[in-house]
Amino acid sequence: MTVILGIESSCDDTSAAILKDGMVLTNIIASQKVHEAYGGVVPELASRAHQQNIIPVVSEAIKKAGIAIKDIDAVAFTRGPGLLGSLLVGTSFAKGFAIANHLPMIEVNHLQAHILANFIKEPGVESRHPSFPFLTLLVSGGNSQLIVVRNYLDMEMIGQTIDDAAGEAFDKCAKVMGLPYPGGPVIDRLAKEGNPERFVFNKPQIPGLDYSFSGLKTSFLYFLRDELKKNPDFIQENQNDLCASLQKTVIDILMSKLKKPPNKPASDRLLSEAAFRQTLHSKKQYTTKPHAPGGKYSSHTWAFPLTTPAWWQLQVITNTWQANLSVWMQLPMPGPHWNKKNHLYTIK
Fold it and tell me: What is the pTM of this model?
C-alpha cells in the first residue's frame, strides 16, 4: 500500500489530494476570489493567498482521507510550469513537510499530470483509461498543445499555440463583453442558450499542427467595435449568440488540427528529436556534480556551450538548487523494496 500527498499551486488554486494505490481519497481545492476585480490573475496576490491557504488545505485533505501523517509514504508537488511565486509556495511547503517527516519528494510537471490524470482511479467510478500510444489535445489555462503519448514517461509535443492559448482567448473576449472573470465558465454557460451559427469569426490558418488565437481575439474585438457603433446595446441583445459563436470557433480551431495528418512522418519527428539531443551531448559536463560527503552543500560551476538554450540552462541550475536543499533526506521511491527507515540515502 502506497499513500501519496499531492500538492498543486501552479496558478491561483491551492490544492491538496491524498492518493492510496492510485485511488483518490480526497481532493481539496481553495480558489481565490481576489483576482475577479482585476480581470485576471495577479501573481503577487496569488502567492500571498497560497501562503494563507496551503496549511488548512493540506490539513483538511489528510483529515478527510481518514489517515495520519505517519501513514504518508511520499510527497508529490507541482514543480512547473506556472507562476513562479505560486510554485515557490507549494514547493517550499512540500520540502518542509517532507524533511520534517523524512519522506521522499516527487516533482511533477503539471501539464504531464493533466494527461496522466486519465489513469487516476476514483471510488465508485469505473476505471477507464486510454491504451498506449494515444494522441492528447491538452487545453488548460495558458496552454494548448497536441501531444503524442507513448507511455507514462515518453511524450512528444507535436503542436502548440504560437501566441495565446484557447483559455486566454475565452477570458479576454469575455472581458471585452463585460463578463466577469474567469470568462471561460461564463461563456460556456451563456453559450448553451445561444445559436453557434449566428456569427462567423476569423480562423487563423497556421501551417503544421500549431495553433494561434491572437487573430481571433482581434477579429472579435473589431467586430464588436463596428457593431456597437450601429447599436450601443448590441452585446446585451446578442450575448448568448456571441458566446455560442465564439465557443464554436475556438472548438473548430482546436479540432481542425486533430483531423489534420502530420506534415512529416513520425520517424522524421523522432530523428529531429534525436538530433536535438545530440547537440546537447555535452550535458554531462555541466549537470550537477555529486554532493559533498555528509550532506554538505557543494559549490557548482556551470560551463554552458554558447548554443545551449536558455530554458535548458535554467533547468540545470534549478535542479542543482532543489537537490542541494534536500540532499540529506532524499529517499528511494516507494515500492516493494522500499524501507521507510532509510533516511540516509545518498544521491548518486
Answer: 0.69
